[in-house]
What does this fold into?
Amino acid sequence: MRISSGSLKGRTFYPPADKWPTRPTTDYSRTALFNILTNFLDFESTKMLDLFGGTGAHSYEMISRGCTDVTYVDKFRPAVQFVLENIKNWKIDSYFKIIHSDYLQFISQFHTQFDYIFAGPPYDLINLEAIPDQIFDNNVLKVNGLFVLEHNPKFNFKDHFGFQQVRNYGQTYFSFFINNKAN
It folds into this structure.
């Protein structure tokens, strides 16, 4: 896997994903998503949450584009260790908060808000369809903040609160939500 743009462009990382219960987003889909995010985010001023952080690819792309406040959450200890090693080796650890936790436990107990939340859960996650409600109900997305949920074609969020659009790249779908209600 490689970082597609920014200060870390071209850096590669090789997660032992064949032994992990993760499904890394393809370089193609991630690059396409970041081309869209360029129109939504000022990376340098964005406070970002990466739920189901896995290999850390999404977080690395954010840092590479100038984000200096990333919170990475994953419950799979080897993934957390892999990301800790990468950010230390690349000397970007000062931009990260690494949390070893289940996503729902984290969002229900962590009392801060984010400008941008990305969630790339396993597609077979039980109750994946509840993630948008969990994000909004736990008030972790700032007003006018952006939430992007990666999923497969079996899910449709078009009638969900805050839904803006969906983009698909093969079997990878990204649903975009904006928190357009005052707290």
About this structure: Helices lie at 27-37, 57-64, 77-89, 103-109, 131-137. The mean pLDDT is 91. The domain at 32-154+164-178 is CATH 3.40.50.150 (Rossmann fold). The CA atoms of residues 109 and 138 lie 9 Å apart.
